[in-house]
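Entry 14: structure prediction run for Tetratricopeptide repeat protein. Input pasted below.
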Amino acid sequence: MTERFARLLKERIGLDVASVGETVVARAVRQRCDKVTAGDMHAYWEHLQASDVERQALVDAVIVPETWFFRYPESFAALARKAVSRLQELAGARPLRMLSVPCSSGEEPYSMVMALFDAGIPEDAFQVDAVDVSPALLERAEQGRYRRNSFRGDQLAFRQRHFSAGEQEWRISDAVRGKVRFSCGNLLAPGMLAGEAAYDFVFCRNLLIYFDRTTQEQAVQVIKRLTRDDGVLFIGPAEACLLINDGMRPLGMEQSFAFRHKGADEGKTWPAPARISVPPIRPAPAKAPAERKSAPPVVAPVPKPQVVDPTQQSLAQIAELSNRGQFAEARRSCMAYLAAHGPSAAVYYWLGLICDAQGQGDEAHTFYRKALYLQPNHQEALLHLAALLASRGDVEAARRLEERAARGVIGDV
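Run finished. Output tokens:
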């Protein structure tokens, strides 16, 4: 039953049905069929051919977006750091241009804005474009109203700064909302954003995992075209190998999943983000000196030699190799660490990331589970395993893991 619907979804949005599972597609088709034609599958298929609105409704039923504010927070820290440096280079020549595609219900592009505001970047120094294939999601995004599921983890101070609270929801501030320009578009459509200049920063995360290899290669060319030669492209953790194979290079900022064109910014170092200035501490008013008594001579203590933890050194090397895209070397370092020190949640997590980045989903699943066996509340392993399960269509299991990560509780995998 799903074969012809699978072809339609492939033609419309490039979806590889195997990435979400035939059961997910069949369930979505049945739900729409029951609602539109009272269960008459032949009539529903005919209606689907004639109605663009219904084709989009079917897409929305199949692709259930899973997103929240500041998902993969290291990416937004990297964005803020690079944006500060880029503006220094531009010296007021033009504002920064940023793109979120697909933007879903708006959590990602609004996070981009909040990250720049919190870094002290003025509102006239940048603009964010946000594109999605779903008009329904764009409508939700433009309203800027969000419930609890959009706020996860325990780092929620941004909500006090940028939202106003209602009875059961939070409304994003007009200042943040005004910096995002939403539009409907398909990344695979001919001439996608052809009239727009390339962007300094592009976020296209956890989309490519839903495509077959041919469509992935096509999409990579589009997002590379949309990214300036000196710009930065942020992708999902399981998509790194696609960009590396296409000649892009990791930015080298840990767990940011950020890439640049090969040769861009060679040998350049980036300054740390600007910090809030703190007034100097003034000394207390001087008092009249008290009568001094003789005291034994003070002997300066001999400084203890600094001890370098070899296990931390090894973990840092694994992280550095992985972030450079040197996956074979990183994997060898992981195996050497395990042989020398025994099981380690941190190393199993890195092995999961390495396999994820190389498209080895089964191995990644195994390593993430090993990490969680040793450290059941390992938040990053929980989130990455959730993303992997979601990409395979196991949405319910993915949701349970994400809830665990958000609560920081221990439970079964």
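Notes: Confidence is low (pLDDT under 50) at residues 267-308, 409-413. Will compare against the previous run tomorrow.
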